[in-house]
Amino acid sequence: MSLGVGIIGCGAIGTVLAQAIDNRQAGDVCLVMIYDKTAEKAKALSNKLKNKPKIAENPEELIECRDIGLVIEAASQEAVASFAVKTLKAGKDLLIMSAGALVDSKLENELRCVARENNRKVYVPSGAVAGLDGIRSSAIGGLKSVILTTRKPLEGLKENKYFMEKYGNKRIEKPTVIYEGPAYEACRLFPANVNVAATVGLAGIGAEKTIVKIIADPRVKRNIHDVEVKGKFGELKVHVENVPFTDNPKTSYLAALSAIATLKKITDSLIIGT
Ligand SMILES: NC(=O)c1ccc[n+]([C@@H]2O[C@H](COP(=O)([O-])OP(=O)(O)OC[C@H]3O[C@@H](n4cnc5c(N)ncnc54)[C@H](O)[C@@H]3O)[C@@H](O)[C@H]2O)c1
């Protein structure tokens, strides 16, 4: 039987994901219901689909729907804080795209605990980064350092409060380091830009020890991530050049694809990779 899913958040990622499910590219999954705090977004998404899901009037209607076994969050860190625990308590698995919410170790621990008590799973896709398999494996042997360097076009930083307050009235004409420090603080200051920092932190040595460098680069058109890991296993380097979505330049296309790949992994009988 198909896995019934519900999507909270009908923006760039939610739309690509819903369309993949509609076109049977996301494994044996059926989209039962969608919800967005902006009702028009949910309506617009439904209009793009051949198999129309129900549009929930409130998040609870989706979370409590009996035909849904997995709730997908593709909304915001705030949505994770509001709905994640409720979802697990309602007996559903949960897929989280706004991974930055999990640098709050209190929330992370609560999710682990509630998931265990309810025999549920929380999935955090790789998002816009690659190499998490290697980081997870190498962390078991012991890690010395994990450094993530993120290079972003100015376009993707325009809605960021911290960036605009510090650099809004300056002309950035060459690559400029706008943040260097722990992943924990990077996720707080750039909530919609560096979910990858949280994901890399979770896979490796945690968000406090993972070092993040963010560079605003007027020369690039892509969201570029370089991860450098050193440990007992040796060294690992990953370089990803992400094409951003046109209607949401903060988000990389690979992030949406990673959610589709996770859905396929959940429903497949042969699992490839660590
Ligand atoms: N893990 C990763 O690597 C990665 C990469 C890109 C984006 N993201 C994150 O995934 C999330 C979705 O990204 P996107 O590009 O689709 O964003 P988007 O802005 O295009 O769409 C988000 C949608 O969610 C809705 N929304 C926001 N808060 C909500 C709430 N509390 N309840 C219901 N609906 C809500 C908005 O109205 C919007 O329609 C964001 O938090 C983003 O930061 C993660």
Please, could you describe this protein's structure?
This protein has about 270 residues and is an alpha/beta fold. It has 2 domains: about 5-125 and about 255-265, 3-Layer(aba) Sandwich (Rossmann fold), CATH 3.40.50; about 130-245, Dihydrodipicolinate Reductase, domain 2. Helix content is about 35%, strand content about 25%. The protein contains 10 helices and 11 strands. Helix 2 links the parallel strand 2 and strand 3. It binds nicotinamide-adenine-dinucleotide (NAD).
Protein traits:
single chain; 274 residues; alpha/beta; Rossmann fold; Dihydrodipicolinate Reductase, domain 2; 2 domains; 6-stranded parallel sheet; 5-stranded mixed sheet; 10 helices; 11 strands; globular; binds nicotinamide-adenine-dinucleotide
CATH architecture call of the largest domain: 3-Layer(aba) Sandwich
**Broad CATH class of the largest domain:** Alpha Beta
SSE order, as H and E? EHEHEHEHEHEHEHEHHEEEH
The secondary-structure class comes to alpha/beta
Shape designation: globular
Query: Main beta sheet, described?
Result: 6 strands, parallel
Q: How far is it from the N-terminal to the C-terminal residue, by CA?
A: 26 Å
- Mean pLDDT figure: 96
Small-molecule binders:
nicotinamide-adenine-dinucleotide
The number of strands is 11
Please indicate the count of domains. 2
Radius of gyration, taken over Cα atoms and rounded to an integer in Å: 18 Å
CATH topology of the largest domain, by name, is: Rossmann fold
CATH superfamily of the largest domain: NAD(P)-binding Rossmann-like Domain
Helix content: 25-40%
Please state roughly what percent of the residues sit in beta strands, choosing from under 5%, 5-15%, 15-25%, 25-35%, 35-45% or over 45%: 15-25%
